[in-house]
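Quick one:
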Amino acid sequence: MRKLLVILVALVSAVPAFSQKTKEKKKYDLISRAGDHLMLQISRDSWSGAADSVSSHIKGFSKGANVYIMLDKPFKGNPRFSAAFGIGVSTSSIGFKRMYVDIDAKTPTIPFEVQDTLSHFKKFKVTTAYLEVPVELRFASNPNTPNKTFKAAIGLKIGTLLSAHTKGKNFQDNAGNSISSAIQKVSTKSYFNTTRLAATARVGYGNFSLFGAYNITTMFKDGVAPDTKLLQIGLTISGL
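Output:
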């Protein structure tokens, strides 16, 4: 009986220690956590809401490139979730075939000039660059191994227009014969909305994820063009 009592006391005494060890195993070591403090993005870009006559002349690989430096703050109650915010630059280039976009015109609306039967630039693009502040709500299934775990994030980013320009290369006649190899570049913000708000989402594994960003605000000022919005879909490489 005495031996049984001793064993029972020993087991009861061991329960708190065992429970403490179990709780400690559930804790996350965030000291060396890689919080995706650097994000590099490359994207396939398109314009949503543009006139059909404009959309039909968007050709080639319209592309974008974004880079952000972020701060990541895990939630104390559940470190799998975190809030992140930062600063960075976002660029987009939309390519056109047989169309000239006259962003330096003095007309009330921006001219999109179709050049199907006219001399034209072989390559023509509209490029914008924004300084942005992104904010994300993030999820990592295992914060202890951020480079080897499922990740997802949703967020918003607000930006201000740094520059907008068009660039034309290789001027040709209607038959495609070269007239001039000179490059024409026109820079002006006059038709563009200088403030941008976009919704964002990411999902992936480790340092790689697919992302999407869609403008809530329009690219151009009210009344100068249809309600055109930028859509970016691409790859994010993150780390540090």
